Amino acid sequence: IIRKIFDTSPAKKAGLQDGDIILKVWEESMLWLKADEAVKKIRWPKWSKVNILYSRWESGLPKTVEVMRDTIVIPSTQEKTFTWKFLDIGYIDVAFFGERTPIEFQKSLEKLTASWAKALILDFRNNGWGYLDSAVDILSYLLPDNTIAVTTKENDPKKTLSLSTKSNKFTNTDIPVIMLINNLSASSTEIVAWALKDYKRAIIIGEQSYGKWSVQQPFVLNDGSIIKLTIAKWYTPKDVNIDHSGITPDIFIPLFDRDFTNRYDRQLENAKEIMNTLLSTNAGIEKIIED
User: Fold this and answer.
1) pLDDT digits (tens, 9 = 90+) for 256-291
2) What strand order describes the sheet that includes 21-25?
3) Under a CB-based contact definition with an 8 Å cutoff, are residues 172 and 110 in contact?
4) C-alpha 270, offset from chain centre
5) What does the alpha-carbon distance between residue 206 and residue 208 come to, in Å, rounded to a whole number?
6) SS percent in the chain: helix, strand, coil, step 5
7) What's the pLDDT at 58?
8) In this predicted structure, what is the pLDDT of residue 182?
9) What CA dihedral angle connects 275, 171, 4 and 179, to 10 degrees?
10) What is the pLDDT of residues 142-165, one digit of tens each?
11) 92 class by beta-carbon count within 10 Å (0-12 exposed, 13-18 middle, 19+ buried)
12) Which of 114, 129, 172, 272 has the smallest number of Cβ neighbours within 10 A?
């Protein structure tokens, strides 16, 4: 199942959409293949073509599409503004935590606040990897300076390290925030979500997160290959270790098969409604969560 289509991708240009089910590639069935095995069937040199048989929930009838392969540049953040019940809500989709993600996040945040966005929805669904430092940098735009964002613990207690938010002129600790997560939200996403949750800075909406607690470090070997070793575990600002259990959202909202059929993003639409309630009633995050 295609979870996310990027605007500049070959899949987007060919007309594929989120939720489409890839059935065959060049008449070869994708049934029972693991994700990485399916990817190998689809990837190939730039400017070559691939035939994909897929079905869409709304019709159910298989269709074939020809996709021209190309180099894919994935932006780590994408932003837009929703006008919801006369309220301008900024929306930032964070796909992963790369080296440039904090810079791109800052630009998105500046752009949205300049366009008079009064609130912020952060979409971290399907974001399952990235750099620890980038997660701390993202939190630096939302939490006060020198706030503990995450703590890493190794076997040696002397090597326990707490990472704090940094000082920058773009920090906005007042704008209301809702964060979306799902069962593929992991690693750096969970660091951000837990910190915002611990400090009552945001309402977390969606589904249980993945639960990745490890801090890994890559080591380059003599033959040029790389091995990643787990060197520590990370803990939330309130010293909680998620250890495979993940994060339980403040408000649990699942997606159903019919949502894919109707192309309805139930989680995002509920987030807009909840944000409207938060701003119109001035009830505060804890009151909204209790209700």
Assistant:
1) 878 877 778 999 999 999 998 888 887 778 777 776
2) 28-29, 21-25, 49-55, 63-68
3) no
4) 17
5) 7
6) 25, 30, 45
7) 59
8) 93
9) -40
10) 999 999 999 999 989 899 999 999
11) buried
12) 114
Residue 47 clears pLDDT 70, i.e. is over it = yes
The whole-number average pLDDT for the span 111-127 is: 90
| Dist CA 55 CA 176 (whole Å) | 39
Residue with tokens 């495979």: 244
Give the residue among 160, 225, 185, 200 at the shortest CA–CA distance from 97.
185
> What is d(CA 38, CA 46) in angstroms, rounded to the nearest whole number?
18
Whether the Cβ atoms of residue 267 and residue 180 lie closer than 8 Å to each other: yes
Looking at the DSSP assignment, which residues form a beta bridge with residue 263? Answer: none
Closest C-alpha among 186, 123, 184 to residue 1: 184
Residue the block writes with tokens 């070997």: 221
Tokens 């009151």 — which residue? 287
**What 8-state DSSP symbol labels residue 170?**
T
pTM of the model: 0.80
| Bridge partners, 163 (sequence order) | 150
Amino acid at 278: L
Which pLDDT score, from 0 to 100, does residue 195 have? 95
**Which residues in 154-197 belong to E strands, given as ranges?**
161-164, 177-181
Q: How far, CA to CA in Å, does 35 sit from each of 28, 41, 69, 81, 137?
A: 15, 10, 18, 33, 31
Task: Give 150's contacts (C-beta < 8 A, 6+ positions apart).
Answer: 132, 135, 136, 162, 163, 191, 194, 195, 234, 235, 236, 237
Beta carbons of 120 and 175 less than 8 angstroms apart: yes
Instruction: Give the whole-angstrom CA distance, residue 230 versus residue 235.
Output: 15
